[in-house]
Amino acid sequence: MSRVGRWVSEHVVMVIALLVLCYMFLPIFFVVLMSFNAPTSRLNYEFQAFTWDNWLNPCAPAGMCESVVKSIEIGFLATVFATILGTLVAFALVRHRFRGRAGTSLLIFLPMATPEVVMGSSLLALFTTAGLAGTLGFWSILVAHIMFCLSFVVVTVKARLAGLDSRFEQAAMDLYANEWQTFWRVTFPLVFPGILAAALLAFSLSFDDFIVTNFNHGNTITFPMFVWGANQRGIPPQVNVIGTVMFAIALLLVLSGGVLQRRRER
Amino acid sequence: MSVAQFGGQVAAEAGGPGAGEVEQERRRGRVGYLLLLPGLLWLVIFFLVPTVQLVATGLYDPNGSLDTGYAMTWSFSNYWDVLVQYQEQFLRSFGYALIATIACIFLGYPLSYAIAFKAGRWKNLMLVLVIAPFFTSFLVRTLAWKSILSDNGLIVETLKTLQLIPEDGRLLATPVAVVTGLTYNFLPFMVLPLYASLEKIDPRLIEASKDLYASGVTSFRKVTLPLSAPGLVAGTLLTFIPAAGDYINSELLGTPQQRMIGNVIDNLFLVQLDYPAAAASSVLLMVAIVCLVVFYVRRAGTEDLL
């Protein structure tokens, strides 16, 4: 009995941790399950019967695949702009001296600490006041996404840069590399994993955003906007196919990234 | 890579910075401003200016409309009016967010602790599993809870068999469903900072406390918990702030009786088109959150986080 007791006390944290992980995975399991569902009515959230139909006709619901494409376009452009602007800011913060450092840090921190509903509504208030309410659409979503992705890029790249040993660059200079060579041959390759991580984060933030987009989308429908609209009429099961595919692609990317890194370390 | 490694050794032997540093430093100053400019300009135009505009919109004449335009009448009463009218939704938002945050602490702490100290070679896999739910859409995941908690679903049936809820009881469309969704959606934001600060703890400190005859509980209370405080505070903020402003969970899993302030702001802005009231509610939400955060961070004694 005491042996059982000791085993429990030693492993109880792990058991709780695994249960919590199950809680986190329960919805994913249901997303996959419901992608094979053949619903009997439009407002149906219980598993009825197995079918391949949703996977064979993923674009059957009108407008859904178009919305996915729109989300990818916005996500890609927002990622490119936010990553470039954010990386420049991160370099300035870590490598350069300038006045107003505290104010700059605050300006970068604030968007991350502001509820999305406040950010979205304040942009709408600005656009409306500027008389742009009728033109809202692709451009306003893009502008908003770049804005909230920027801070996350700065923080991610900054962490990588701050952990970088500046003696590598000094050594390159000592070996007669000029500043340009030092940057592209030494600094950039060392910081690149941080930039890549920041870009992936930015893309997933943009692709998945609903609240800010909802205030500034005009008539443009992104995938989250499509799901929100569909919820009023009943969710087509194909939404879960898209959810499953997204999950599989992201998991594959992360796992292959891990394998690559392990191989490089050997 | 090899250039960098070789360079590191040389630099370690050569030591500190060389001559001509002063001239270079001055030039770098100008480059610094150039690097900052585009990013900061973007944040000023599309974050700072809109926030100021939001405060101003909250002061517009409440009798105006989008078609006729709003006059600036410095109507401070707008703020008081929405506070009175929507106090229920304000209180509910902070209540739900508080409960969800506490639930996240109780679920997230054991998970982060296990990853940091018990997982061994499974550490990276468990971390990937923590962020994996992010890989699929927020809305699709929240809708999945609709299936999980559905009236004839496994969970409701089990609770009925155990007589924990009455025969006609349901989970969907109740506060329980909304808080469950909030807890689920923001749990990773608790786990990641907690793990980061637990990971930094030197295990020898915990061993030392055991050598000094501290029991497991005492050692946790006096060593592990205080050392993980920064992660706990960061995690609490990252969970509480988005949860208080969220309206996806209450819209998808609740009913009008579970409306939060986010639903109100969305409705005022996009359905009723009452911009002054909408802006005032939005500003009040932000002010309330800032006050709570400052108070909490002061009390927790971790000012350096801000």
Notes on the protein architecture:
The complex is a heterodimer of chains A (266) and B (306). Chain A has 266 residues and is mainly alpha-helical. Chain A has 2 domains: 2-53, no CATH class; 62-235, Orthogonal Bundle (MetI-like fold). Chain A is built from 11 helices and no strands. Chain A is globular, with a radius of gyration of 23 Å. With 306 residues, chain B is an all-alpha fold. Chain B has a single domain (87-305), classed as MetI-like fold. Chain B is 73% helix and 0% strand. Chain B contains 14 helices and no strands. Mean pLDDT of chain B is 85; it is low at 1-23. At the A-B interface, helix 1, helix 3, helix 4, helix 5 and helix 6 of A face helix 1, helix 2, helix 4, helix 5 and helix 6 of B.
Oligomer: heterodimer
CATH class of chain B: Mainly Alpha
**Residue runs with pLDDT of under 50 for 5 or more positions of chain B:** 1-23
Kindly report the name of the CATH homologous superfamily of chain B: MetI-like
Count of DSSP H/I helices of chain A? 11
Kindly, what is the distance between the CA atoms of the first and last residues of chain B, rounded to a whole number of angstroms?
36 Å
Overall geometric form of chain A: globular
Q: Look at the structure and give the mean pLDDT of chain A.
A: 88
Name the helix and strand elements of chain A from N-terminus to C-terminus, one letter apiece. Answer: HHHHHHHHHHH
What is the domain tally of chain A? 2
Question: Any low-confidence stretches of chain A, pLDDT <50, length ≥5?
Answer: none
Protein name (chain A): ABC transporter permease
InterPro entries (chain A): Bact_Polyamine_Transport, MetI-like, MetI-like_sf
Subcellular location (chain A): Cell membrane
Membrane topology (chain A): Multi-pass membrane protein
